[in-house]
Amino acid sequence: METLPSLKKDDAKNLAQFNKWVDEINRGATDPQLRLEPMPSPSRLAPYANAVTTELIGEVGEELASGRLVFLFNPDGVKEWAGERRCVLFARASLESEIANDPLASEVGWSWLQESLERTSASVTALSGTVTRTSSESFGTLSERAPMGVIEIRASWTPLDEDLSSHGAAWTTLLRLAAGMPLEADVTHLPKRDRA
After folding, report:
1. CB burial class (10 A; 0-12, 13-18, 19+) of residue 67?
2. Closest Cα partner for 166 from 14, 19, 27, 56?
3. CA neighbor of 112 nearest in space, from 126, 92, 96
4. What is the chain's alpha carbon radius of gyration, rounded to the nearest angstrom?
């Protein structure tokens, strides 16, 4: 009778370490207005992968921002990552159309990510990403809709901290910044479109 091969000692150790890091990320990503939902993980990027998605919901039930966070672990390391672990995030939020058209909006969006990492004391290397902003105006039977804009932030980095709670917290902090929600009194945000 054939039996399935058991996990190698290193495989079991790596899986346990990976699960520990995933738990830390999820613990750091707690926010009363967010509910993390698991989503299919990319299977070709690393031997170990975990992905979650979430929406930031406002007081009247409207979506203010949404995003996903993927955590990758390759015990052999990846040259482009400059390490064994990688956080990959996506954040999306609405903006007033005129703000989305401002040439500095992309730089502001990137500064939100940097501020989020700084606020949570997440130590990273090999940080990279893109900021995309679009605006749209409706016509015909939809002409009564107000012009709207959208900002999307895609980024990845290699965490240097052993405990990854701060990296989960950085992601949710970015979502709050992008949604224009206050963190502290000294935070300046881009105005959002009227959601009334």
Report:
1. buried
2. 27
3. 92
4. 19
CB atoms within 10 A of CB 148: 18
Residue ranges per domain, the chain? Answer: 25-178
Q: Tens of pLDDT along 86-99?
A: 999 999 998 776 66
Two structure tokens written together for 142? 């939809």
Q: Decide: 142 and 136 in contact? Cβ < 8 Å.
A: no
Q: Under 8 Å CB-to-CB from 162, ≥6 apart: which residues? A: none
Cβ–Cβ under 8 Å, residues 159 and 85: yes
Q: How far apart are CA 114 and CA 170, in angstroms?
A: 9
Element (H, E) at 82: none
pLDDT digits (tens, 9 = 90+) for 164-177: 999 999 999 999 99
Give the mean pLDDT of the chain.
84
- Kindly give, in sequence order, each residue whose CB lies less than 8 Å from that of residue 81, ignoring residues fewer than 6 positions away: 74, 126, 158
The rounded distance, in Å, linking the Cα atoms of 32 and 38 is 17
Q: Are 88 and 118 in contact (CB under 8 A)?
A: no
Helix (H) or strand (E) holding 80: none
Quote the tokens at residue 68.
Answer: 């996903």
128 within 8 A of 156, measured Cβ to Cβ: yes
